[in-house]
């Protein structure tokens, strides 16, 4: 029985190894595979119950919002229809205020409108018994 103990030159050991050792990678992948095989059945177990069978029907519970626009001249528009005076506005708002649930009033005031014109609309909403009044604005442009 003969054994060769490096009779060649030392240049053989100085060469760069160009192969990748994949043994640690395979070890890690096998450990991960075992962990997943153990944990998946634990996660999928739940308490067995019989759930009720019911069809879901969407309900229309929110009424149409009232959109009031106030121009820079102080004219009031109800969904693009002109409202001639404050009393007519109050009367129209009273008919809407009795609906269940009560719709919201969205006020779109012109940038150049006088505060008094917007105030008359808010006062009309208050006199009619409207609970929610919102002001519609635009977001400033991004710079």
Structural description of this entry:
It is found in: Cell membrane. One of its GO terms (biological process) is protein transport. Belongs to the ExbD/TolR family. The chain is α/β, with parallel strands linked by helices and 143 residues long. It has a domain at 66-135: 2-Layer Sandwich (Nucleotidyltransferase, domain 5). Helices cover 34% and strands 13% of the residues. It has three helices and five strands, in the order H-E-E-E-H-E-H-E. It has helices spanning 23-44, 86-97, 115-128; strands at 66-70, 76-78, 81-83, 105-109, 133-135. The chain has a five-stranded mixed β-sheet with strand order 3-2-1-4-5.
Helix content: 25-40%
Work out the strand percent: 5-15%
CATH top level of the domain at 66-135 is Alpha Beta
H/E topology pattern: HEEEHEHE
- Tally of strands: 5
Protein structure class: alpha/beta
Shape: elongated
Ends apart, CA distance between termini:
85 Å
Which fold name corresponds to the CATH topology of the domain at 66-135? Nucleotidyltransferase, domain 5
Largest sheet: 5 strands, mixed
Number of helices: 3
Uncertain regions: pLDDT < 50 for 5+ in a row? none
* Architecture per CATH nomenclature, i.e. the level-2 architecture of the domain at 66-135: 2-Layer Sandwich
Instruction: From the alpha carbons, calculate the radius of gyration and give it in angstroms.
Output: 38 Å
Question: What do the pLDDT scores average to?
Answer: 81
Task: Give the strand order of the largest sheet, numbering strands 1, 2, ... along the chain.
Answer: 3-2-1-4-5
């Amino acid at each position: 029985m003969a054994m060769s103990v490096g009779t060649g030159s030392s240049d053989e050991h100085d060469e760069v190894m160009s192969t990748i050792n994949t043994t640690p990678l395979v070890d890690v992948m096998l450990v991960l595979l075992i962990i997943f095989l153990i944990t998946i059945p634990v996660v999928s177990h739940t308490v067995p119950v019989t759930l009720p069978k019911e069809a879901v029907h969407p309900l229309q519970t929110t009424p149409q919002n009232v959109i009031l626009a106030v121009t820079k001249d102080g004219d009031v528009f109800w969904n693009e229809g002109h409202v001639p005076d404050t009393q007519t506005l109050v009367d129209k708002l009273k008919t809407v205020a009795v609906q269940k649930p009560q719709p919201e009033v969205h006020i779109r005031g012109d940038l150049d409108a006088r505060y008094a014109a917007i105030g008359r609309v808010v006062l009309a909403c208050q006199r009619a018994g409207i609970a929610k009044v919102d002001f519609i604005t635009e977001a400033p442009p991004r710079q």
